[in-house]
């Protein structure tokens, strides 16, 4: 059975019919060609599929597309503002991107965290990464990446 769905993805309205069993992750990847959110476990365990739904990080493999109605989704492809650029640069600069499979989900989680809390403690950063699996970095570099981004974002702007 199919149902009509309407959502805003990276600032663009998307409307169409989707099967009632289609997840947001599959809709993004298969119907919209947005493959930045990765399909790791497809069961809510790894965080690789994380996107922002109305500003909050969610596992898109656990969200049914038919539950969305005018909701706002941001994927890694849509993060192109100054703050996001600094976050991404910080991941690269600190070596928090290695194989990169977890990186889109981690970067989205960082963006979600900083949206709510522009000056997080180490503990708050670690809490934001609960549910994100990274096989490569040992997580210390990821925390360092967020701290670097926070430092740069809080620096007074030069004229
Ligand atoms: S693919 Fe969604 S949590 Fe792993
Ligand atoms: S950088 Fe490889 S899984 Fe995290």
UniProtKB/TrEMBL annotation:
Q: What are the residue boundaries of the 2Fe-2S ferredoxin-type domain, all occurrences included? A: 3-79
**Which EC class is this protein assigned?**
oxidoreductase
Cite the Pfam families for this sequence.
Answer: Fer2, Fer2_2
Task: Name the EC number(s).
Answer: 1.17.1.5
Q: Which PROSITE patterns match?
A: 2FE2S_FER_1, 2FE2S_FER_2
CDD domains in UniProt: fer2
Stored InterPro entries: 2Fe-2S-bd, 2Fe-2S-bd_dom_sf, 2Fe-2S_ferredoxin-like_sf, 2Fe-2S_ferredoxin-type, 2Fe2S_fd_BS, Beta-grasp_dom_sf, Diverse_Oxidoreductases
One GO molecular function term of this record is: metal ion binding
| Keyword terms | 2Fe-2S, Iron, Iron-sulfur, Metal-binding, Oxidoreductase
- Gene3D superfamilies xref list: 3.10.20.30, [2Fe-2S]-binding domain
This protein's pathway: Alkaloid degradation; nicotine degradation
Name of this protein:
Nicotinate dehydrogenase small FeS subunit
- Source organism per UniProt: Pelotomaculum schinkii
Lineage at the top is: Bacteria, Bacillati, Bacillota, Clostridia, Eubacteriales
- Per the record, the gene is ndhS_2
